[in-house]
Amino acid sequence: MTDATQGPEAFGALQDREPPKAPRSQWKDVWDQFKRHMGALFGGGFLVFFTLAVLLGPFLWQVDATQIDIRNKDFRPIYVALWDGSAKVGWNKPLGSDQLGRDILAQLIAGGRASMAVGWAAMVLALLIGTTVGVLAGYFRKLDFWLMRFTDLVLSLPILPILLVAVTLFRQPLNQAFGPEGGMFILIVSVVGLTSWMQTARIVRGDILALKEREFILAARSIGTTPAKIIRRHLLPNVVSPIMVSATLGLATAIITESALSFLGVGFPSDFPTWGKLLADAVQRMEQYPERVVLPGILISLTVLGVNYLGDGLRDALDPRIRGR
Amino acid sequence: MLTFTIRRLLLSIPTLLFISLSIFMLLQLAPGDPMAQVPLTVPPEVKEKMREALGLGQPPLIQYWKWMVQFFWIEPQVLIDHWFGTSFSEGAQRVISWQTRSPVMDIVVQRIPQTLWVVGLSYVVGILIALPIGIYSAYKQYSVFDQSGTFITMIGFSIPPFFTGPLLIVIFSVQLGWFPSIYDTTHVVTDWASFKVQFMQMIMPVMVLALQTTAQISRYMRSSMLDNLSQDYVRTARAKGLRESVVVLVHVLRNSMIPVITVIALGIPSIFGGAIITENVFKVNGIGQLLITALFANDIPMVMTLTFIFAILIVLFNLIADVLYGVLDPRIRYD
């Protein structure tokens, strides 16, 4: 009798009435949180859009950015015709042309390619150095003191003056070795990378120090895993999120630094357009042609704004304490 | 606290030595030749003598030592002589600029007031704007004010000064004609009218620099206020019937200012670095502009001295920030 009363109903509370949800992966959670941050979505969208535009742009708008066309110089952008009927505009130059008749749309695309390439490469370099220093300092106690003193020393260097010194002084030999564009690219990427890794190193070291004391590392070590494998298998995947956040910050700084160097006249050679270079060259004539300053300036600002918002959203999405709230 | 300060001061000596050595070696590695402008007709032995006259004949380490003696021993003596009318430094060799053949420090002293006026004032303006914004947007978290404040500070972060500068010039000098686009450093303030001119020409460079400061400091202020607003002592203060203004502006604000003040101290040297670009945009002849011209002219003693002055500022304000943190927050104990 008693058996009959303890039927399925009695255990009802223990049974799943609704079918179990599909298991959720960590990255799906991250994406769900990320989607809710409008700024981050727009920022990421901008970044992807600009990257695609500078990558695919040359195939859609097949005009050589350095082509001098002196008869068609000083065109205004096509939209100027809306309020100024007498302006010199033409559909063959949608964003106008500069004082040598070079097409501004093509220059902006080519300049974006250079700026983006410098930004990405310098960011990757800074991340590599920063992560290596951070992991080594956090994991190996013997290295910690000296590596961190070194990081503090580099942090107290005056970055912008040193960048200026390095770029002006080493321009000549590198230009001879790799050609004017290649040499400048290597120089700017390496000086920006070598002077912006410190924050990443500090953050990664802090995280590694905390992770190192956790049980799963102890377990890994007790079954005889080598330090190299512990770092690759167990530590690095756990510090991916701070690295990603500092990657976005690094990309923004690298793009701004490259433009600032170009603006101060120590960047790429004059016939090689970058956004900062275009802006700097146009400053002298901005009373007549304000758009030549404004267009590259807006592109730099939007890219950096997008990257910063992306970083903001990533920080929220990758932090499990904030996620799900 | 005193022992901590002394220990930090002692520690900053090797730091500064290392920095000066690395800057010096960087400049040594540089391929630029100060004799490059000398005509080819000058015979090589004369060139060699000119080179020695510039102090280039010696090995790098001796050059470095001599520079250090000049910078740390002779230049302070010159300063003392200037103040008290003594003659300690008579006949001693000072750091000489290769461009003008005059002592580097004299030129730096001429240029510093312009930089300090523009940079210092912009920093103060930036902080004065940033603090209320940060406080209010933390108090009304996620309100329209907070959201738009976040957006504006993000923009302030993202727009580089070499774009805001020309943009402001296009709008306010070219289109509206309100402010002059070039900062006239020879302008002397004697009466009300000339003060007005000085004020007008300072508005734009100060605004460009202040935008950066405001963006940064108001973010810190906001997050620091948010940390403190959720603490227990705030609930206690409200529970015992204190007015809301007292709770927020006395209890919470005082505690939130601790990290913000250190951030303000840390930001001072970096604003000098950022001023290089702004000075270039508005043609202010401060020390940033001096550094650029010295770089292009291959004037190594000038570049070395200026870069090292920037380094001293950074180390000094790092120290000040650390000490301030300990002074303001009695929970922090360094020893």
Quick recap:
The complex is a heterodimer of chains A (325) and B (335). With 325 residues, chain A is an all-alpha fold.
Description of the molecule:
The complex is a heterodimer of chains A (325) and B (335). The model of chain A has no long low-confidence stretch (mean pLDDT 79). Chain A is built from 13 helices and no strands. Chain A is an all-alpha fold and 325 residues long. The radius of gyration of chain A is 27 Å and the shape is flat. Chain B is mainly α and 335 residues long. Helices cover 76% and strands 0% of the residues of chain B. Chain B has eleven helices and no strands. Chain B has helices at 2-29, 44-53, 60-84, 104-139, 144-158, 161-175, 192-229, 232-239, 244-282, 287-296, 300-328. In chain B, α7 (192-229) crosses α9 (244-282) and α9 runs antiparallel to α11. The interface between A and B is large, with 42 and 45 residues.
List keywords for this structure.
heterodimer, A: 325 residues, mainly alpha, B: 335 residues, 0% strand
Mean pLDDT of chain B comes to 81
Biggest interface pair, counts: A-B, 42 and 45 residues
Let me know the largest β-sheet of chain A.
none
What is the percent of helical residues of chain A? 55-70%
Could you tell me how far the N terminus lies from the C terminus of chain A, measured between alpha carbons in angstroms? 49 Å
Round the mean pLDDT of chain A to the nearest integer and report it: 79
Gyration radius from CA atoms of chain B, angstroms: 25 Å
The secondary-structure element order of chain B is: HHHHHHHHHHH
| Gyration radius over CA of chain A | 27 Å
Tell me how many strands of chain A there are. Answer: 0
User: What is the overall silhouette of chain A?
Assistant: flat
Order of helix and strand elements from N to C terminus of chain A = HHHHHHHHHHHHH
Distance between the termini of chain B: 8 Å
Strand content of chain A: under 5%
Spans of chain B with pLDDT under 50 lasting ≥5 residues?
none
Structural class of chain B: mainly alpha
Strand % of chain B is under 5%
What is the number of helices of chain B?
11
